[in-house]
Amino acid sequence: MPGKKFEVQAINDDILAKFSLKNRYSFLNNNLMAILSTKEFNFLKEVQRFCMRFEKKNEITHGPDEDIYDWVPAFGEKGYITRQHTFDMCDVHYDNWGLAADFLRNLAIDMFDPQFAMGGGATVLAVNPIYEHHDDVPIRLEALKDLVTGKAPGAILITEPERGSDAVHQLTTCDEQPDGSFLINGQKIFNTNAPKSKWLVTYATAEQNNGNTMAQFLVNSEWEGLLVERVNIPWVPKLYLGKETFANVRVPKDYVLGGVGKGRGHMFEGLVPERISIAIMGLSECWGALAHAIIYANNRKQFDQMILRFQGVGFLLADLWSRTTNVTLGLLKFCESFDEKYTKFQGNIPKNISQAMVASASQFKYHASKLAKKVCYECANNMGGAGLCDNTLMHDYLNISRIQEIVGGSRQIQQYIMSMSLRQLYKMSVP
Ligand SMILES: Cc1cc2nc3c(=O)[nH]c(=O)nc-3n(C[C@H](O)[C@H](O)[C@H](O)COP(=O)(O)OP(=O)(O)OC[C@H]3O[C@@H](n4cnc5c(N)ncnc54)[C@H](O)[C@@H]3O)c2cc1C
Predict the structure, then answer these.
(1) Which bin fits 189, alpha (ψ -120 to 50), beta or left (φ > 0)?
(2) What is the mean pLDDT of each run of 10 residues along the chain (431 residues)?
(3) CATH architecture of the domain formed by 154-261
(4) CA 222 to ligand 1 center in whole angstroms
(5) Residues with CB under 6 A from ligand 1
(6) What CATH class is the domain 266-429?
């Protein structure tokens, strides 16, 4: 375990050494070995090998002084920003791609550093709409390549100071000009990576509060009239979130990903992969926290016994472990069948199937983020003081896991979507 991370060492040398990234990966791999296909398992190990070497070579301690954005180019060069797609249209080719591959990529990277993994996830939210709507326009392909190869992080700008959950009734306006460009005015907030990003994907509306007039734009953060300020989120102190003020920002025609009327559809089409990615992130956090707590419980002694042998500790870990394993299995199955259908229908999944996937994505996002909050807290709690001090990544897990229920649509919004799906299902099932 790197030694400079903490102010004062609270955990003894032996146990600290056992928390190495290698051991935590090994714990994860022994859990997944029987479940993953050979191809999947090899890919997981490939990303893990890279993370271990990267950590060692760069003497990364995960301490407060490190800038996680410095690591983006190296991961981008290896193709580890996203594996949801292959990007042949901008000369970036992957053999291993799809939601399942991206699950494994994220598992490895999250165990390396959870805040870094979350920042990468936010870049992917900018990648996906450009991937869907590049229309072979050179500047869009250039932005896509920058993002997937780690030249620049990216951000998605949906949330506004006065419009959070109610994302379709936006106040940021776009006025079309005679030459096909648009002028954007308004404010966005809580946009992960924005202060560090070159490329932003934003939404605005021709008429305030009218979802039918939404449009979607690719924006260069250096354009005139755009002010990007950092919003501090203490639970993820290494991530840079933005508050953006658009004052007559001119967006040239080539940067319009979806004109007036197309924005809402574009926003909803990205929601299934986004919510699945948040579920993946939540589960990766569960595995990271469990790996720490289980290693600790097998080594920490009290009353002259390893604490795993006390029912209060061992049975709790068994409960958290079984829940995490089960949801992992379910999510992996979902990802694999999503990939199968995506390939079969060449990206155009039929409406009835994609509608069912909207409900599943909400179920997984809801369940996995709730589980992450529980598992990460209980694992930290089970480690006593060792789970709360700054000697390990446990405090990162504790804090970041509490955020997953808010991002990508809050817990209550997922419940609302699922309850509406129950109405649909009822109508489909009962004459
Ligand atoms: C760390 C972090 C990263 C983020 N990253 C991004 C990003 O990259 N891009 C981006 O655009 N946004 C991002 N967000 C914003 C996030 O998506 C919003 O915070 C979220 O959608 C909730 O919006 P809000 O904060 O305005 O809360 P509100 O919508 O004001 O909600 C407040 C409370 O009311 C509840 N509520 C609201 N409406 C209903 C309803 N109809 N039924 C029941 N309950 C309801 C909510 O569940 C919540 O508990 C991020 C936020 C955080 C904290």
Answers:
(1) beta
(2) 70 96 98 96 98 97 95 98 97 96 98 98 97 97 98 97 97 98 98 98 98 98 98 97 98 98 94 94 98 98 98 98 98 96 90 86 97 98 96 96 95 96 93 90
(3) Beta Barrel (2.40)
(4) 27
(5) 122, 155-159, 164-165, 190-192, 233, 236, 241, 403, 406-407, 409-410, 412-413, 416
(6) mainly alpha
